[in-house]
Amino acid sequence: MYDIVIVGAGPAGLTAALYARRAGHSVLVLEGGVPGRQAVTTPHVENWPGTLSISGPDFAMGLYQQCADLGAQFQFSSVTGFEDRGDVKAVRAGEEVYEGRTLILANGVRRRKLEVPGEDRLGGKGVSYCATCDGSFFKGREVAVVGGGNTAVEDAIYLASICPTVWLIHRRDRLTAQKYLVDNLKTKDNVKHRPQGAGDPGGQAGGGHPAHGAGAPAHPPRLRRLRRGGTHPRQPGVLAPPGPQ
Is 163 an active-site residue? Predict the structure, then answer.
């Protein structure tokens, strides 16, 4: 019996475990993946107060180690069910049932897929969701990143350092990433970006944040389906950064 059972070992779950242990409560954290969850997949964390920059894996492992050193218990297995027994909450994970007086759900979000033909079949065979995890497989090759938010732009910036050409494909008329990321992206000459649906082949529609202006290709690839050999024109790798769902 634990005072608190926490489902999820992302930054929210680990922070809850940290404060619970400092308050003297017994804590069990259940996690079906790795500590830090999606934070592990980001190259740099630069909005954590007191730290100018830290890698996602280092940030996640630091949180995990801090909780473990304070005495939080961890079980790495997926939660499959709950039962409310009044003053006791039962949680099934794997073959075990764990009980706690308080249950905290910090299970985060699921990775959002592209939902295009070929995505599932080519998962791990050219389609990836983590540039920092799998980027080395595409070193020296042409890749495409799908998305226009923070994660997609961070991935494009990282891949630009190891790949000759990075296509940034997204559905809006402007990038939605934070301005400092977009400004950094503009310095990467090997990132080719133009929103799908931009009307002017030579420029940028919508008054958004282009990665490149006149130098951008007139007809960048549009993502309609995935097949072995890449999108058109051929990209050996497609990175679809995770988004909330």
Answer: no
